[in-house]
TrEMBL record:
Domain of life: Bacteria
One Pfam family, short name: Ring_hydroxyl_A
Alphabetical UniProt keywords: 2Fe-2S, Dioxygenase, Iron, Iron-sulfur, Metal-binding, Oxidoreductase
Gene3D superfamilies cross-referenced by the UniProt entry: Naphthalene 1,2-dioxygenase Alpha Subunit, Chain A, domain 1 (3.90.380.10), Rieske [2Fe-2S] iron-sulphur domain (2.102.10.10)
Cofactor: Fe cation
Organism of this sequence: Aeromicrobium fastidiosum
Rieske domain segment(s): 44-149
GO terms of molecular function: 2 iron, 2 sulfur cluster binding; dioxygenase activity; iron ion binding; monooxygenase activity; oxidoreductase activity, acting on paired donors, with incorporation or reduction of molecular oxygen
Annotated protein name in UniProt: Aromatic ring-hydroxylating dioxygenase subunit alpha
Length: 386
């Protein structure tokens, strides 16, 4: 008899409408498998193009043992480069963003251009051929101004725009590529990355836990849409999903007052397009929500079985001026509060599922997207034979 895989087990739970067993959130072995089988093979959000506006600018993105430099070259082209020196393997740059003329290895000073080619290597013999030792490439794709990388070692990976096709029409009007980052928070969440996702997939908990969020977000409309159009689009494997984000009557932005937080509307909303709010995501790690005046991106990075980093960035129109068009406090208030409330809920679930007495319970009518997450997870795991 062959042993049951994790994906088989998840699909069985799904069939019964049940949540997942506790050890899926605590096992170090499973965690290591997920990091390599899922995060090592899927598209991961790296940053917004406005973070690397000029030639020489770069940002970094890490996942598990992997680190990538996303660099803009003199022609404006963006390259994904493995952050590993071709000599004896040192990291070329630390985490974060920066600007440099060359990537010079701190160890023995091999120097690389922004397209990864090796430009200089001191004291190498005459026979040394620099062209044979460029930095390794990491698959990189830009969609609506959002830069994604994929650490897969396969020659070819699936097309990011195709994966995001359903979200394109809904998100186009926001002019995401013309935004810039107004604020960044990195939250440390004491919970497994899957619990963070599950929590974000349902508003079953919103009324009881998110007083700021539900001032403008219409929980009832989300549960039973009356708008007459499909409330949710998703890819067959549920990795990519997008939806309108219903606000209460009169609200035009997800803020405390329902009024815009930034005076400079984004994209087509500057030309009078009727306001709406929309959300999209790409599993395993990326989600974003846009109102006509500002947007927010979320990136989940698994750190250990019971710890996840969530990097959240608030975006505004690139011409919006802090203190004139928006105040950061007001801009971030609803999501920052909501996030902190969510992390506390995730932490409490992480504590609970560790108990020997935890038995996965049935999902509610408001948790269909949690089931969608389980399905996508099972598909991503089974693609790696797990
Ligand atoms: S390890 Fe980078 S130059 Fe030696
Ligand atoms: Fe929440």
């Amino acid at each position: 008899m062959t042993e049951k895989t994790t994906s088989d087990l998840v699909l069985e739970q799904l069939k019964q409408g049940l949540a997942l067993p506790g050890d899926l959130y605590t096992s170090p072995t499973l965690f290591a498998e997920e990091v390599s089988a899922i995060f090592g093979r899927q598209w991961l959000y790296a940053g917004h193009v406005s973070e690397i506006p000029h030639a020489g600018d770069y940002l970094t993105v890490t996942s598990g043992d992997e680190s990538c430099i996303v660099a803009r070259d003199a022609d404006g082209e963006i390259h994904g480069l493995l952050n590993v020196c071709r000599h004896r393997g040192a990291r070329l740059v630390d985490c974060g963003t920066g600007s440099t003329r060359r990537f010079v290895c701190p160890y023995h000073q091999w120097a690389y251009s922004h397209d990864g080619s090796l430009a200089g290597a001191p004291r190498m013999p005459d026979s040394f051929d620099k062209s044979r030792w460029p930095l390794k490439k990491v698959h990189t794709s830009v969609w609506q101004g959002l830069v994604f990388v994929n650490f897969s070692s396969e020659e070819e990976v699936e097309s990011l725009p195709e994966l995001m096709a359903d979200a394109a029409e809904l998100m186009n009007p926001f002019g995401v590529e013309d935004a810039r980052i107004a604020h960044t928070e990195v939250y440390e969440v004491d919970a497994n990355w899957k619990l963070v996702w599950e929590n974000a997939q349902e508003c079953y908990h919103c009324n009881a836990n998110h007083p700021e969020f539900i001032r403008t977000f219409d929980v009832r409309e989300m549960a039973q849409p009356t708008a007459g159009e499909a409330p949710l689009w998703y890819s067959e494997d549920r990795r990519s999903q997008s939806a309108r984000f219903p606000l209460k009557p009169g609200a035009v932005s997800l803020t405390m007052s329902g009024r815009p937080a930034s005076a400079k509307p984004m994209g087509e909303f500057a030309d009078g397009r009727e306001p709406y709010t929309a959300a999209a995501h790409l599993k395993p790690g990326f989600a974003f929500v846009f109102s006509p005046d500002y947007g927010i991106t979320f990136v989940d990075t698994p750190v250990s079985p019971d710890r996840t980093h969530v990097k959240v960035q608030w975006l505004v129109h690139r011409d919006a001026v802090e203190g004139v068009d928006y105040a950061v406090d007001n801009l971030i208030r609803v999501w920052d509060q909501t996030n902190r409330q969510d992390w506390e809920l995730c932490r409490s679930v992480q504590e609970g599922v560790k108990s020997h007495g935890f038995e996965p319970g049935p999902l509610s009518l408001d948790e269909t997207s949690v089931a969608g997450f389980y399905y996508a997870y099972a598909r991503m795991m089974s693609a790696a034979g797990l």
